[in-house]
Amino acid sequence: MSIRSDHIASEVAAAAQSYGEPLSVRDVIHRYHSALLNFLRPRLRVAEDAADIAQETYIRMMQYEGSREIRSPSSMLFRIAINVTNDLGRAEQVRRVADQCRFDDLELVSEHPSPEREVAASQDLEILYDVIAKLPPKCRKVFLLSRVQNLTYPQIAAQCGISIKMVEKHVSHALALCIKKVGESGGGAS
């Protein structure tokens, strides 16, 4: 044999010897745990799941404990971890689908009133305009100064030349009529 063939023969023997060593999952975990966690974290939606994925990976790898057919324990470890990650992703998708419901079953809430409510509000508003128009002139003026102009009772009293007590009576009378008429119409807008 030549030197070259001796060298090749020794490499083949070394490869055969390493190929034939029994797999020790404990040694694989000890050697690759940090690398596995660093590999998993960026691939997960929740980085804290990396430890759980690693644990499941080690459990799955236990079935190969003592096997002499594993050429690259690190490659196998990372392949199992990818599979566990994919399984987790599929399980999450199933849970999300299970949490969904039919669009027809949803009760949608809108910021806008329903068409029926808009019609009822419009009718109530017409009734209010009618009630206000039929108020005695002095009462109507006091009420509008209070509710439209947002004047205080003392300001209204000074402007109309009446007492604050009289302003209170006019506003109370107008409000009572408005509430009564809208209530009679079956409405309920306030």
Give an overview in words:
- The chain is an all-alpha fold.
- Helix content is 69%, strand content 0%.
- The longest helix is centred in the middle third of the chain and has 27 residues, at 73-99.
- The protein is rod-shaped, with a radius of gyration of 42 Å.
Outline the secondary-structure elements.
Layout: H1 3-19, H2 25-40, H3 50-61, H4 73-99, H5 115-134, H6 137-147, H7 153-160, H8 164-184
Helix pairs in contact: 2-3, 2-4, 3-4, 5-8, 6-7, 6-8, 7-8
On the 0 to 100 scale, the average pLDDT is: 82
| Beta-strand segment tally | 0
Poorly predicted regions are 7-18
State the helical fraction. 55-70%
Q: Terminal Cα separation, in Å?
A: 107 Å
The radius of gyration over CA amounts to 42 Å
Report the total helices: 8
Q: Structural class of the helices, strands and pairings?
A: mainly alpha
Q: How many distinct folded domains?
A: 2
Largest sheet data: none
Order of helices and strands: HHHHHHHH
Strand content: under 5%
Key words describing this protein structure:
Arc Repressor Mutant, subunit A; 190 residues; 8 helices; 2 domains; 69% helix; mainly alpha
Describe this structure in a few short sentences.
The protein is mostly helical. Helix content is 69%, strand content 0%.
